[in-house]
Amino acid sequence: MTNETTGRQQLAALWTDQGLKADRTLKIWESAVLLPLRWGQEGWEILFEVRASTMTWQPGDICFPGGHREDSDPTLLYTALRETEEELGIPRSSVQVLGPLPYFYGPMGPLIFPFAGILQEGQELTVDPEEVGEVFAVPLKDLLAMTPETGTIQIGTHREDDFPEGLVAPVKPGWKPQFDYTVYFYPWKDKMIWGITARVLHNFLQLVREKGLA
What predicted TM-score, i.e. pTM, was given to this entire model? Predict the structure, then answer.
């Protein structure tokens, strides 16, 4: 028979090398992105990607370099820098990391961890055409002058037919709203920056204003 001391040791052993992980059966995953800044002709500017038209997920949408955290990535910052190097050919040593921006859940399930960083002066890009269709830059001063359009997505729950209603207190059938998710839209020439990318951008612009740098 197992005594309490042995039992404690056995339970503790369950967490050996067990870091903080997401339950992937819930389709929640960690992603990290880099908001890249560089010095341009009009001062600071932010670099954006247009996703390649051949991508299966949101082709043609505007995004920051980034992607899913792989099991081998030691940190989320590592993920953001790894993806930046893969997509734009920018070595990690050429990025001055400024720090993290507020993380948040995307409406489709990802937990987004953004970071801001400055690219080395004169840094050339080597774009991966399988992931990136185009790269463009927007002056920071122009983004700060914008008031974005907004829209609302309602996030909620709905019990499917296989839900065992008899096991819990009855509730009214149908959609159960939980909270509203604000979507930002920043138009730039023939482009529309929106969704997760616009939320990262919005939070960065708020930080710049709050610190009196605008």
Answer: 0.84
- Please report the DSSP string for the chain in residue order: ---HHHHHHHHHHTTTT------GGGT-EEEEEEEEEEEETTEEEEEEEEE-TT-SSSTT-EE-SEEEPPTT-SSHHHHHHHHHHHHH---GGGEEEEEE---EE-TTSEEEEEEEEEEPTT------TTTEEEEEEEEHHHHHT---EEEEEEEEE---TTS-GGGS----SS-EEEEEEEEEEEEETTEEEEHHHHHHHHHHHHHHHHTT--
Side chain identity, residue 207: L
- Amino acid in position 192: M
Structure tokens that stand for 134 in this block = 């185009």
Map out the domains of the chain as residue ranges.
26-158+172-211
Taking residues 87-106, what's their average pLDDT?
A: 95
The chain-wide mean pLDDT, for the chain, equals 90
What residue type is 214 in one-letter code? A
pLDDT band at 19 (very low <50, low <70, confident <90, very high): low
For 8, 115, 207, 208, the CA distances from 181, given in Å and listed in that order, are 43, 21, 20, 23
Domain 26-158+172-211, architecture per CATH: Alpha-Beta Complex (3.90)
Q: Between residues 140 and 11, which one has the greater pLDDT?
A: 140
Arithmetic mean of pLDDT, 150-158: 85
Strands 149-157, 176-188: pairing is: antiparallel
